Amino acid sequence: MDWIQENHVEIEKDALDHNDWNELGDIHAFLQVFHQISVRQGRENTLDEVLSHMDFLHHHFTRTKNRAFSGPRFYARFHVAWLKFEKYYQLTEQAPVYVAGILLHPALRKTYLSEQWKRNPAWVSNAVKAVRKIWSTEYKSYQLPDEQQEKGQELDEFDRWRQKVYSTASEVKDEFDRFIYGSQVGIGQQTALQWWLEPTQRENFPLLCRMAIDIFCIPPMSTEAERIFSGARRQVRWDRSSMSAKMLEASLPRTLHAANEQLRRLCGSQRDFGGIPIILFCGDFHQFRPVQERSILLPSAAISWDVGNSFKAEQRHQHDQAHALWKKFTTVVMLDEQMRAAGDPELQRLLKRIRLGVQDRTDLDLLNSRCYREGRRISWETGITVVTPLNRNRWNLNMEATLSFQIQQRSMMRIFISERKWMDSLPSEEEATMMLNQGEDSTVPVPGVFMFVPGMPVVVNHNTHQGLKLVNGASYTALDVILDKAPPGHRISADTMVHFGPPAGIILASKATKNFHFVGMPPDTILLTPMSVSIQCQRKRPWQQNDVSRKGLPCTAAFACTDYKVQSRTLERVALELRGTRTTNVDGRVVPSQCDPYSLYVQLSRCRTLDGIMLVSKVRERDLVGNRVPQEMTVAEARLEDRAAVRSIKSD
User: Fold this and answer.
1) Which positions ≥6 away from 293 have C-beta within 8 Å?
2) What is the pLDDT of residues 154-177, one digit of tens each?
3) Which domain does 531 fall in, by range?
4) Contact 534, 514 (CB under 8 A)
5) 65 and 182 share a domain?
6) Mind listing the pLDDT tens digit for each residue in 605-616?
7) Which of 53, 377, 390, 650 is 20 to 30 A from 75 via CA?
8) 468-473 contacts: CB < 8 A, separation 24 or more?
9) Within a domain: residue 348?
């Protein structure tokens, strides 16, 4: 506004005239159609919609073309848009699946192509030939299993004669031609895939039905498959995206299906995984389990799918295709040595016993005698990392470590109190104090209090810029903060200031930020800014009576971490708390629950030697002796070990 006031004389005549407004009106009218199509594609993102939308836009361009000649500037913009559209319109000709989506749609079929492209019948003929080639090479000769054979019954001589006669009669007219030249049928609110999944269509077109289901399960654009598959490394760190055996047991079938479809598209082949001869699943049975999903080991018929009405026909078909893919994996190689501890045979033997589930009191005595000392303090100055599954302990330990780090660095400490807004009514003093002390966790990425000292390690708690690897679980060194002028700082001592509000941003650095160059930022750094998060009343916080929003930095100090955050990391010095994630009250004492068997192995396997491990508290017998992974995991591992043994015998 100041600049406008100072230069109002020069710019007062710079205004839009009648012609400018008319031109803006033409641009708006032209682009409004694109907006409508974009909204519709987001709502009805199916393969058959792509070509029909492109046909409509082609008609829209043609209709606007004559009017575009009346304005030179509008025509220039229109011409550039036309060239870009033509480029992508012609690309659809290279992928016959788009035409297949039209031909196999019960309400469109070949009639649609003949009507829309009546001025170019040669194109229609070539398009139909391309789809027919897919039908002939991939589906027409497929041998459907006979129902009697599936039930284990042998066909007698009369049944074999009858089958031959009827199958010959059914092949008088090709299924593909019989369908595409048939009459158009309205399907109402159904999708084409839902129509083809009906039992009636399987009976009328048993082979073509397979092709139609495969076609309509292909993502119309590669964005979704690339997001899940190709972009996985950019979005999720390797230690979060690696597939453990439990993940294979409960793997997301749709992810495997999307990977398969993306590889088919990239390789230009309908064979499994685009014809790639070797596909590797790698992982560890003794890492943390993922969120449970429908098991990829079972077909959809063996699973209840009506929970919350969240699974549709598309998901069930994709699950079955992924299940069929999984059954084709036969070669298994099992590695049972913990190589991180290769330099310490004693630790390596302990880890192997834990993997086998045979650890006993001898192992308990070993850990407590070698790694625990009563009253020993945590030597933060050595760069040790504390691993604890209890959030409350982690919050307190990080505060203690930050104070120690400040003394060691002799730097200024800034304490940022996250901004809070209460939704319904003002809280009581007790509720406000408890909320201030409530740190971050898996559902709330913003801590109530963030203590900053330059050079401290931090871990990000939220997927902020996935392409730049600024994601949940990523570790950084915090170099500096950019202060927000709105909340003033209050100096409470010579080297400590308190800010009632978050900073405008925090400057982070790591190996992942090397060669980053943002305007106005130091080289090799990235900026993390505050975010707001809603904290709703939950049973685990009985003291909270009102919903509240919290604004602050989605990161926290990384001197102490949860067992999940250190998974896959190698730590030279580590302090472990082998306890469960919950606490119970026993005779007025707070007692942690039993250590999770996966946490037990993950924590103990982070260090290279027993000498590098310190125990925060003495290991209880219940946390180690007899603490095994669930029975279904043991069965899954045994099944794969049997396959590995068979492979070993064959190779010998």
Assistant:
1) 250, 251, 252, 253
2) 556 666 666 665 554 444 468 999
3) 410-557
4) no
5) yes
6) 888 899 999 999
7) 53
8) 468/512, 468/513, 468/516, 468/526, 469/234, 469/237, 469/512, 470/508, 470/526, 470/528, 471/235, 471/236, 471/237, 472/240, 472/445, 473/237, 473/239, 473/240, 473/564, 473/565
9) no
